[in-house]
Amino acid sequence: MDVKVWMYLAYLAVSIGLTIWVARALSRNGLVFLEDVFTDKRLADAINSLLVVGFYLLNLGYVTVAMKEARAVGTTSQALEELSMKVGWVLLVLGALHFFNVFALGRYRRGRLRQQAASHPPLAPVGYVPAQPGGRPVNPAGPVQSGPTHAGPTQAGPMPPAR
To answer: Could you tell me the pLDDT band of residue 20, with boundaries at 50, 70 and 90?
Structure first.
């Protein structure tokens, strides 16, 4: 087998392994988020399964389409360079799919939360504050004084006699 065939085999092994690992991690850790988004465990499980299938189809489809290399690969170093480019693109596609899913589900969740908030009427009052006599609140400290509140020299009272 020539170098290009080994590159293809390594590319498939790495790309499929990464796809399976990422799909399992997203499925396992994303289920909590989906249960919060959809509030129904059965629906969250079904959506999670559909997302995993779609993830596999999109990513493995990309992996197979991007596998072909038109240029000749003569040396091992060229094969490794091409392999790293191909795996790098697979990782970028995996990340883009992940962020798109999180963005779309986050928008759906925010809309659902807004809809829930709009459908709940405001809380009814629990009690009431009794009215004060005379319609004005009573000040327990007495009437409010107007004017300066500090004692100046003219307000101090008579001076003691000088000795």
So the answer is: very high
